[in-house]
Amino acid sequence: MKVAFATEDGKRVDSHFGRCRVFSVFEVDSQSYRWLEPREVSEQNIQMESEKNERRVDLIKDCTLLFVCQIGPAAAAKVTRSGVMPLKVEEGTEIVGQLERLVAMLANKPPLWLVKAMRKAEEGV
Fold first, then answer.
1. d(C-alpha 27, C-alpha 37), whole Å
2. How many CA atoms lie within 13 A of 80 on its CB side?
3. CA max distance for the chain
4. What are phi and psi of 110, to 5 degrees?
5. Which pTM was predicted?
6. 42 or 102, which is more confident?
7. What ranges do the domains of the chain cover?
8. Side-by-side strand order, sheet with 22-28
9. What's the rounded Cα separation, in Å, for the pair 60 and 70?
10. Which pLDDT tens digit goes with each residue over 33-72?
11. Sign of the CA dihedral with 64 first, then 112, 124, and 43 last
């Protein structure tokens, strides 16, 4: 599954969804993880807040999970409707640590919330 992290430095979850300039995207399975790419947010010609959120959702809509340190309710609803589960973590949380926890969860018995998120992603909901 693909997982996105709202990050400014590429090492920590340190950005609010609505202000994030880069999403770092990884592929994760029950054995390992690998970095895929940074997805940069271009805000040229954006007038409205809703357009900013739409552009960000478009960047991550192929991901199953999104790690952010903050996200507003309207943005969280848009992210969820696109089939991505937003997860709020403490600002400064290490990305590698989150990835290692995900690999361990997938290798053992994943929690129900993760199973549901993966199933939803597979169905393209």
1. 10
2. 10
3. 46
4. -65, 145
5. 0.90
6. 102
7. 2-123
8. 33-40, 22-28, 2-6, 65-68, 85-88
9. 16
10. 999 999 998 766 556 666 788 889 999 999 999 999 999 9
11. negative
Q: Which two tokens stand for residue 96?
A: 């590698």
Q: Which residue has the tokens 């790690």?
A: 67
| Nearest-angstrom CA–CA distance, 34 and 32 | 7
Question: Which residue type is seen at 15?
Answer: S
What burial class does residue 47 get, using C-beta atoms within 10 Å of its C-beta: 0-12 exposed, 13-18 middle, 19+ buried?
A: exposed
Instruction: Give me the helix-helix angle, 49-60 and 73-81, nearest 10°.
Output: 40
Q: Name the CATH superfamily for 2-123.
A: Dinitrogenase iron-molybdenum cofactor biosynthesis domain (3.30.420.130)
Q: At what angle do helices 112-123 and 95-107 cross, to 10 degrees?
A: 90
Give me 64's structure tokens.
Answer: 């199953």
